[in-house]
Amino acid sequence: MGQQQSSNSSSDATSEPESAELMYVKCSVCGKWMDVKPGHLNYISHSLCKTCYDSEMRKLSQGS
Ligand SMILES: [Zn+2]
Fold first, then answer.
1. Which string of b and e fits 16-28 if b means at least 16 CB within 10 Å?
2. How many angstroms is it from 1 CA to the middle of ligand 1?
3. Using one digit for the tens of pLDDT, what is the confidence trace for 10-49?
4. What confidence score (pLDDT) does residue 63 get?
5. Which of 20, 46, 51, 60 sits between 20 and 30 A of 5, alpha carbons compared?
6. How many angstroms separate the CA atoms of 35 and 47, rounded?
7. CA of 64 to the centre of ligand 1 (A)
8. CA 46 – ligand 1 centroid, Å
């Protein structure tokens, strides 16, 4: 007793004011939100999550 665990402080690593602009990374296949990182404001970057990337690679290697 006596020890407080406060590990969830989001304002810990934000030393730059530009971090208010966040770029969202979304999987273009399944629509899963993958990442949020500093970047252009309200910019959504489409990418492939690991699962979809793997299945896409399998499709490509198998041919159509
Ligand atoms: Zn996906």
1. eeeeeeeebbbbe
2. 44
3. 555 555 555 578 888 999 999 999 988 887 777 888 899 9
4. 76
5. 20
6. 10
7. 20
8. 10
